Amino acid sequence: MDIKVDHISKAYGEQQVLQDLSCVFPEGKTTCIRGRSGCGKTTLIRLLLRLDVPDKGKIEGVGDRKLSAVFQEDRLCENLSAASNIRLVCTETITDRELEEAYKAVALTEIWQKPVRELSGGMRRRVSILRALLAESDCVIMDEPLRGLDEKTRAKTIDYILKKTEGKTLIFVTHEEKEAVWLKADRTVDILTKH
Question: Which residues form a coiled coil (predicted)?
Answer without folding.
Answer: none
